[in-house]
Structure formats: structure tokens, C-alpha cells
Please model this.
Amino acid sequence: MNLKDYEFWFVVGSQYLYGPEVLETVAKRAQEMADTLNASGNLPCKVIYKVTAKTNAEISDVIREANYDTKCAGIITWCHTFSPSKMWINGLSHLQKAWCHFATQYNREIPNDEIDMDFMNLNQAAHGDREHGFIGARLRAPRKIIAGFWQDSDVQQRLGHWMRSAAGAEFSKSLKVMRFGDNMREVAVTEGDKVEVQTKLGWQVNTWPVGKLVEIMNSVTDSEVDALMKEYESLYEIATDNIEAIRYQAREEIAMKKMLDREGCCAFSNTFQDLYGMRQLPGIATQHLLASGYGYGAEGDWKVSAMTAIIKFMTQGLKGGSAFMEDYTYHLVPGSEYSLGAHMLEVCPSVAAGKPRIEVHPLGIGDREDPARLVFEGHEGKAVAVSLVDMGGRLRLICQDIECVRPIMPMPNLPVARVMWKALPDLKRGIECWILAGGAHHTVLSYDADAEMIKDWARIMDIEFVHIGKDTTPESLEKDLFLSDLAWKLK
Ligand code: MN
Model:
């Protein structure tokens, strides 16, 4: 499914106390609000008005339906009138989809002359929202609360932003990751508990033999390779005479895509230590698959692969780009302090500032032929770096705000794609915070997601979330991590 195919159900709370006329008005307005929200252009997914719920049974029914409907990614609740919250307990206790409590009201203004007790009975969102909020807090239910006038663009955009996280949660629950080979020997951070991950996040992480991939590669026809070469030529500048190396990458890409699609996998990992029967480590093959929306992690890093796929899914339609990334080296010149990120090949061209060049260079490790890869600079802009780590007994998702710049030097002898950034709050404290939290060297770097989107996703998945931003200090973070550690042990 694509992001835009997901639906969100608008469930309006009320009760029989006010008589049928009030309930008819509420239902009519709720439909109008859904229509207006859908026409606003600010939501990536559709809102469907479902019911003005007056009883425990109506609420339980709509939540049961929502749980079983594969297109429904969440419910949006709102209280035009007062909706006694004991009616919500049975339903909300069984809710398996994301929940947004939309604290809005139909009218923007208090009408000075018109307001009387009839008006107050019909328009009491402020009253109803507090009762509704209490039960969410009492049930310890993970929920997003968005307050503001429903016609305001910024409010609609926040709702749309949350929809991306909620749809990302649904995508996560059915995500399959294909592993070619194990993770790199002796590396700790790319390890993880696949059973825990499937339980919490839904990911099915399984392995397939590289030999199977080689068999499929050998069956790829020349005309299939020709067609993909045409696509490469239209998107990228060919800056090598070694066309055969590019054609070999095209063959790898076609075979990997066939295997991924056959198994319904949207993410994959491989490792330079296990390329049995392959002549090149996949470079442009992986980069072009990433640009098509597949997740990828190098050195067998299936966690970052899955996170890349999820973040790409959540940010569909946005233009900044998201890439598998690795922190490599620092520029520690006072006043001009940056991190340089790259990978030995596999950075996604969605983050490129210009037209990527296809180049062929030797690879220092892996003992294979020189692989063709895309070389480019990342563009400037605000972004986040995201890392999921396994803390043993629980998962921690770390998100750091960063500011990317065009690389401040050309680095003519660096034969890979590169991105340069400043981590917040500043390079040194940013590094200290990241290391304190245990963030990996592999990350998802996204210009389209932000900390709120990632946090909302983590809240829906019920995993620990750590944000490093402009106000974070190593001291405050250390205390937060200590308390968080205690809290998650008790949970
Ligand atoms: Mn790596």
C-alpha cells in the first residue's frame, strides 16, 4: 500500500442527553469537517467520518472495525459535546491503531450576541475534551493530542504530519526485511533481537542465500539490463568508460528487485563479507533501489534497513530525501566544525544536490572487482539522523536534529557520495550526546522527517525515544537516560 491509500476514521463523541436535533447537527458538522480537511491539501491520507458515538457499544463497535480494517491507520476522536468517558473504556482498551485526540471546535469565535445556554450545550469542546483527555491519561493510552481550529493550515498540517507517523506504524507492522548474509563479523551495534523486533515493531527479518541471488542474476536477460541502463542514463551522468561495470550493477539490481518483490520485502541488507559468486559489491544497484523506496542497511544492518524503508514510506511525496548514512569523519576547525557522512557505496541519491555521476573505482575492502557507484554531494537543509539500537530487553530510537550544508570542500579524491552536517546543539556536545545514548554509526538521514514525526512513530510502537536537539545538554541527557532506563525496566 502507498501512504495515500491509508484512511483515518473520524469518531465523534457525544451522548443522548441533548436530544436528536443536537446530534443531527453534530453529525452534519463532523461530515463537513472531514470534507474540508480532505479538500485542504494538507493531509497525506483521507479522513472518513464514521460515527457520532453515544454509547459504549457504538464506540466498541467502531474500534473493533478499525482494528480489523487494513486500510485504517488510526482514529481521530473529537468531542463536539460532552461525551462521558466511561463509555470509551471498553473500546479504547482494545484499540490497536494509532489514536489522535483532536482538541478543536466547530466555531472559531465565541459569538457575543448569540451565545446562550443552547449554544453552550451544543458547543462545548473545551468541556468534552477534558473528560476525553482524562480517560486517555487514566488508561495510559499512547495518543497524539492536537489542539487548534480545524480550518487553520498549521493545525491541518500537524494532523497530516501525525498521519505520516501512524501510517508508518501500519507499514512497520507488515514490513519484511531480506537479509543477504549475516551482519559483519564482531560488530555489536548491528546485532539485535529479531524476535523482540517482530513483537514490538512487526518486522519479519529473515535470511536468503547469496547463491540464490546469483542464480537469478545469471538468468537476467540483456534486454532487461538495456532497459535499466536507459533509466540510469536518463537520471545520472555517466562518468566512466567502464560500461560493463555499470551493466553488471544493473544485473544485480534487477535480480535483487525480483527477489524482494517475490517475497514481499521492502527492505534488505547485505555484507561485503558474503558476496559468494558476485563480482561486485552492489553500489548503484543498491542506491537506485533506495531511490525507489526500498530500505537498505550495509554490513548486514537490518535495523537501519527497516528504519530507512519506514521513514521513506512516512515521507512519501516530500522532496528533501532520506538516505542510509554513516558517520565517517570530523572537521574540527573552530568556527567551522562539521561531520562528514558517506558510505563505501550505498548512499541514496534522493539527497543529492545535483545530478549524480556514475563512477567506477576500486574498493579497498571486500576482494571484488571495482564497483560502479553514484557519486554526489548532499544538499543543504535541516534534517534528522535516526538510529534504532537494541539495549537488551528493549529498543531505543535515537533522533538527532542536524543542519546539513553543501560540503565545504570538493574532496576530489573521495570516490563516494558525501553529506556534511552540523549536529545540534553543536558539534562537540552533539557528538557527546549521541555517544552517551549509544547511537550507531549507521543512521537514516532524512530531510523530510523531523523529531516530532519520529517521536510519534516511537510512541505508537511503544518503544523508548531519545531526542537530541538544540536544548539538549550531555548533563540533562545523562539524567534522562538514567530515569528512562529505570522506567523501561519497570514497564
Ligand atoms: Mn557501514
The chain has a mean pLDDT of 97. The longest strand covers residues 322-333. DSSP finds 15 helices and 19 strands in the chain.
